[in-house]
Amino acid sequence: MSIVSPLVVAGHEVWPLIEGGKGVAVSNGRSAGAWAAAGGVGTFSGVNADVLDDNGEYVPLVFKGRDRQERHEELIDYSTRGAVCQARLAHEMRGGEGRLHMNVLWEMGGCERVLTGALEQAKGMIHGVTCGAGMPYRLGEICASYGVHYYPIISSARAFNALWKRAYNKVSDWLGAVVYEDPWRAGGHNGLSNSEDPRTPEDPYPRVLELRNVMRKMGLGHVPIIMAGGVWYLRDWKDWIGNKELGPVAFQFGTRPLLTEESPIPDGWKKQLTEIQQNDVLLHRFSPTGFYSSAVKNRFLDELVERSDRQVAISDEADPDAGRTSFFAYGRGGRGVWVTETDLGRIQGWIAEGHSQPMRTPDATLIFVAPEGARQIRRDQADCMGCLSHCAFSNWKDRGDYTTGRPVDPRSFCIQKTLQNIAHGVGDHEDELMFAGHNAYKFREDPFYANGFIPSVRQLVQRILTGH
Predict the structure, then answer these.
(1) What Cα–Cα distance (Å) separates residue 123 from each residue in 88, 119, 213?
(2) Do 225 and 306 fall within a single domain?
């Protein structure tokens, strides 16, 4: 007995259950194919997807380029081949059931090139493309040219209105659905605007209703809205299911599919998920994308928090009006900056603790880290391979003169490095960025996972359909 009814998605009747696309090898062809085979919509990530050899084994990317531009080209080529590999695997696994989507991030380096390359080389295997992290104005045009439905990920009616007026109204026939991703509850990168308080989550119902009303004015009352972020039990959404005010609604699951037999994440990560408690997921703004994002609190996030806490405002000249009348000397030739007397005392304390290396930020501040930490930050910045369209950490930009024009920001990190490490079990997952939604603590409380049980994707989909 199902709590929901089938829904037509991308021209095919499926369960209104969507696998959320999680980047850098976390949702792949195997997990997506299994989700589609269970009757839903499987989603593999096209964000630096793994290339597979003829035996289905992972082929890591070893960069040979001497500079960022050369490495960026290698990454684009690898990412395109990886997306095609995962599309083929998912297509084979689904056995003609369900639908398959590819997920991309508009702000990933070379997004349009990877997207068009994958759609060209995997024709007939990809039924839809979901895309967020930015304003993907050209998404509809690209997808329509390949006869593929598109699914923009937004977090407000205002964002969709802008996309529609500028671009999507020209290719409305290929709009498969609109994904509303709750910016307070979803894992990974979130679409919080500067006008929204990250500490005060808002009820999604009024926000989704506003989106539906905007869509109705555009003649899109029949187009489904996919609710994403904070979805665990369908029983919690009974007021949404069959609600005429909201119109057709489907539900996206990003965190729950992490803990399945087909999920490609390492066993240590899976075990960690079963131990997470409420409030163990932090909404933060350390990402080099500039977006807010949600990840599990661990040593990696603790270090970023502490790094930013060891921060003082500076002036290159004495500034009595700001109270910066104390000189802090560092570097060669007696260089230094002016800080407040209080901050000078804090600096001396951090140096005594071993955080003796000051590093400038783009915001007229200094942070203090241990010498080895500073060397690692500089190495990571030098090793940049251009995975983002704009990177605050390394000042990379994927066009023009290949620089953002701003100084590098040592308060951030190389996101490609850490996500590749955790996805492929390199090192300790405590020392890497571990994305998760804010409901991840329910793995520990949900009786479905008692005694260490890890379901297959099919078992999970059947469980979800019951409302539990």
Answers:
(1) 10, 6, 35
(2) no
